[in-house]
TrEMBL record:
Matching Pfam families: FliE
Family per similarity comment: Belongs to the FliE family.
The keyword Transmembrane helix appears for this protein: no
GO biological process: bacterial-type flagellum-dependent cell motility
Subcellular location(s) per record: Bacterial flagellum basal body
Principal subcellular localization: other
Cellular component aspect of the GO annotation: bacterial-type flagellum basal body
GO molecular function terms attached to this record: cytoskeletal motor activity; structural molecule activity
Alphabetically ordered keywords of this record: Bacterial flagellum, Cell projection, Cilium, Flagellum
InterPro entries, per database record: FliE
Name listed for the protein in its UniProt record: Flagellar hook-basal body complex protein FliE
Species name: Undibacterium oligocarboniphilum
Length: 120
Protein backbone atom coordinates (compact mmCIF):
# COMPACT_ATOMS: atom_id res chain seq x y z
CA UNK A 1 0.00 0.00 0.00
CA UNK A 2 1.18 3.49 -0.84
CA UNK A 3 -0.35 6.13 1.46
CA UNK A 4 -3.52 4.06 1.88
CA UNK A 5 -3.94 3.24 -1.83
CA UNK A 6 -3.58 -0.38 -2.87
CA UNK A 7 -1.09 -1.08 -5.68
CA UNK A 8 -3.76 -2.94 -7.67
CA UNK A 9 -5.92 0.19 -7.74
CA UNK A 10 -3.03 2.23 -9.07
CA UNK A 11 -2.43 -0.40 -11.76
CA UNK A 12 -6.14 -0.39 -12.63
CA UNK A 13 -6.14 3.40 -13.00
CA UNK A 14 -3.04 3.27 -15.22
CA UNK A 15 -4.75 0.61 -17.35
CA UNK A 16 -7.84 2.84 -17.68
CA UNK A 17 -5.71 5.80 -18.73
CA UNK A 18 -3.87 3.67 -21.27
CA UNK A 19 -7.16 2.39 -22.69
CA UNK A 20 -8.48 5.95 -22.98
CA UNK A 21 -5.30 7.05 -24.73
CA UNK A 22 -5.58 4.11 -27.12
CA UNK A 23 -9.19 5.04 -27.94
CA UNK A 24 -8.11 8.61 -28.70
CA UNK A 25 -5.33 7.41 -31.01
CA UNK A 26 -7.55 5.15 -33.08
CA UNK A 27 -9.35 8.12 -34.61
CA UNK A 28 -6.19 10.14 -35.23
CA UNK A 29 -4.54 7.86 -37.82
CA UNK A 30 -1.64 7.11 -35.51
CA UNK A 31 -0.62 3.57 -34.81
CA UNK A 32 1.33 2.49 -31.73
CA UNK A 33 4.28 0.21 -32.41
CA UNK A 34 5.54 -2.35 -29.88
CA UNK A 35 8.40 -0.14 -28.68
CA UNK A 36 6.00 2.69 -27.81
CA UNK A 37 6.74 4.87 -30.83
CA UNK A 38 3.95 6.16 -33.02
CA UNK A 39 3.71 5.76 -36.76
CA UNK A 40 1.27 7.26 -39.17
CA UNK A 41 -1.15 4.55 -40.22
CA UNK A 42 -1.28 3.50 -43.84
CA UNK A 43 -5.07 3.75 -44.02
CA UNK A 44 -6.79 7.10 -43.87
CA UNK A 45 -8.62 7.72 -40.58
CA UNK A 46 -12.30 6.95 -40.81
CA UNK A 47 -14.66 9.89 -40.65
CA UNK A 48 -16.73 10.12 -37.50
CA UNK A 49 -20.24 11.50 -37.69
CA UNK A 50 -20.80 14.34 -35.22
CA UNK A 51 -24.12 12.89 -34.05
CA UNK A 52 -22.50 9.51 -33.40
CA UNK A 53 -19.63 11.10 -31.47
CA UNK A 54 -22.06 13.15 -29.40
CA UNK A 55 -24.23 10.13 -28.66
CA UNK A 56 -21.19 8.05 -27.70
CA UNK A 57 -19.96 10.71 -25.27
CA UNK A 58 -23.41 11.07 -23.70
CA UNK A 59 -23.68 7.29 -23.39
CA UNK A 60 -20.30 7.27 -21.64
CA UNK A 61 -21.45 9.96 -19.18
CA UNK A 62 -24.60 7.95 -18.53
CA UNK A 63 -22.60 4.76 -17.95
CA UNK A 64 -20.27 6.51 -15.48
CA UNK A 65 -23.27 7.82 -13.55
CA UNK A 66 -24.96 4.40 -13.49
CA UNK A 67 -21.82 2.65 -12.26
CA UNK A 68 -21.34 5.32 -9.59
CA UNK A 69 -24.91 4.87 -8.42
CA UNK A 70 -24.53 1.08 -8.31
CA UNK A 71 -21.29 1.39 -6.34
CA UNK A 72 -23.02 3.70 -3.85
CA UNK A 73 -25.88 1.25 -3.46
CA UNK A 74 -23.45 -1.62 -2.86
CA UNK A 75 -21.67 0.42 -0.18
CA UNK A 76 -24.97 1.40 1.47
CA UNK A 77 -26.00 -2.26 1.57
CA UNK A 78 -22.81 -3.11 3.47
CA UNK A 79 -20.74 -4.80 0.76
CA UNK A 80 -17.25 -5.31 2.23
CA UNK A 81 -15.63 -5.21 -1.22
CA UNK A 82 -16.60 -1.55 -1.72
CA UNK A 83 -14.79 1.14 0.24
CA UNK A 84 -16.01 4.65 0.93
CA UNK A 85 -13.07 6.10 -1.01
CA UNK A 86 -14.09 4.08 -4.09
CA UNK A 87 -17.64 5.40 -3.81
CA UNK A 88 -16.50 9.00 -3.40
CA UNK A 89 -14.05 8.78 -6.29
CA UNK A 90 -16.68 7.29 -8.60
CA UNK A 91 -19.16 9.98 -7.58
CA UNK A 92 -16.63 12.70 -8.35
CA UNK A 93 -15.84 11.10 -11.72
CA UNK A 94 -19.56 11.05 -12.52
CA UNK A 95 -19.92 14.68 -11.42
CA UNK A 96 -16.95 15.83 -13.48
CA UNK A 97 -18.13 13.98 -16.59
CA UNK A 98 -21.64 15.44 -16.20
CA UNK A 99 -20.32 18.97 -15.70
CA UNK A 100 -18.12 18.55 -18.77
CA UNK A 101 -21.14 17.44 -20.81
CA UNK A 102 -23.10 20.47 -19.58
CA UNK A 103 -20.27 22.84 -20.53
CA UNK A 104 -19.98 21.27 -23.99
CA UNK A 105 -23.73 21.64 -24.43
CA UNK A 106 -23.52 25.30 -23.39
CA UNK A 107 -20.74 25.92 -25.92
CA UNK A 108 -22.72 24.21 -28.68
CA UNK A 109 -25.83 26.26 -27.92
CA UNK A 110 -23.75 29.44 -27.85
CA UNK A 111 -22.15 28.58 -31.20
CA UNK A 112 -25.59 27.82 -32.65
CA UNK A 113 -26.91 31.21 -31.51
CA UNK A 114 -23.84 32.95 -32.94
CA UNK A 115 -24.34 31.25 -36.29
CA UNK A 116 -28.07 32.04 -36.33
CA UNK A 117 -27.40 35.72 -35.56
CA UNK A 118 -24.87 36.12 -38.38
CA UNK A 119 -25.93 38.40 -41.18
CA UNK A 120 -25.65 37.01 -44.65
Amino acid sequence: MINGIDRSRIDAMVAQLSAAAARMETGSGLKRVSDGAEQIGSAAPSKIDFADALKASLDQVNQVQISSQQLGQQFAMGDDKVSLSDVMISMQKANISFQTAVQVRNKLVSAYHDIMNMQI
